[in-house]
Amino acid sequence: MAKEKKELDLTDLPGIGPAVATKLKEAGIVNLMGIAVLSPAELADTAGLTEVTARKAIQAARKVLDLGFRDASECMEKREKLIYITTGSKNVDTLLGGKGLEAGSITEAYGAYGSGKSQIAHSLAVNVQLPLEQGGADGMAIFIDSEGTFRPERIKQIAAARGLDTEKILKGILTARSFNSDHQMLLVDKIFEMIQEQKIPIKVVIVDSLMSHFRAEFAGRGMLADRQQKLNKHIHSLLKLAEQCNVAVYITNQVMANPAVLFGDPTTAIGGHILAHASHYRMYLRRGKSGSRVAKMIDAPNLPENETVFWIYSGGVTDAEPKD
Which stretches does DSSP call E strand in the chain? Predict the structure, then answer.
């Protein structure tokens, strides 16, 4: 049955021909799950169908996908088959549950500039290309750069320090500079097409940073509601991408000083509750002693609050202090 699900296309559903399938794909609906979660009215409006035809297509998709409840042992079995991508630091991997960045989930790292967010992003873009037995995913990376932080020179440096083919590693990373929030959202929609239609083996999607454009374009409290509504749509596209395409999503986030905190660290992630609830794993990064970085697990559905230390060196991130 699992094999049959993979082979079925939108055009295999009743009432959906090539022209209708093209309309749906242009709207970002590229597989049966995208049909199954719609209402008849939504599908009819998107595809130009009657509600009766739309209802039949939705029912057929739901029947094939066997949507419904399952016992916890099945969920456990599914989770045991998840792919993980090492950060390069065993300490950080342990903080994230033991194996690294989890596919099907969003991992958020927030912190001040220089805390190591982008360094982990560059390391992940290299590590995802490693074989499974080395902590990789045998896949490619997408790097959406909203702040101009992506550096191919850094990728080459990491790859060379680890004895990897630098040109091959560079070709395994697809990057795009987003120029505003709409462009950033469009790039995420484009990834669905690359995975579903072009069959590009993307295993990690990096957004560095998620909030940069939203913060610049929606200034002041008067625009906060509009910003959060748009952010909510964007983060749910990333959630859908992670879950439906089984990719790991790593997002970096900016911070602000919370004036309400009188004692202790006033550093707070921006993005509000919408972003906080959407991220499965939320890490706070900061500078430590002797050039080290500290990673603290702030929130995770299955992990305790904890922290660890890591360093940055020519080969990415590591557990030991680099020797000069």
Answer: 84-85, 101-102, 106-111, 140-145, 173-177, 202-208, 248-253, 255-257, 267-269, 281-287, 293-299, 306-313, 316-318
Average pLDDT over residues 37-48: 91
- Give the amino acid at 154: R
Closest residue by Cα to residue 211 from 266, 172, 246, 256: 256
Give per-residue pLDDT as tens, 3-22: 334 457 889 999 999 999 88
The answer to whether 215 touches 254, Cβ cutoff 8 Å, is: yes
What lies within 8 Å, CB to CB, of 232 at 6+ separation is 274
Structural domains of the chain ordered from first start: 2-65 (1.10.150.20), 78-318 (3.40.50.300)
C-alpha gyration radius of the chain:
21
Q: Which residues pair with 287 in a beta bridge?
A: 293
- Mean pLDDT score across all residues of the chain: 91
Q: Which of 110, 109, 111 is nearest to 87 (CA)?
A: 109
pLDDT at 147: 94
Neighbours of 292 (CB within 10 A): 14
Q: Is the pTM of this model over 0.90?
A: no
Residue 202 Cα distances to 157, 190, 244, 303, angstroms:
22, 12, 13, 27
Question: Which of 134, 136, 155, 141 is CA-nearest to residue 204?
Answer: 141
Q: What is the pLDDT of residues 135-168, one digit of tens each?
A: 999 999 999 999 999 999 999 999 999 999 999 9
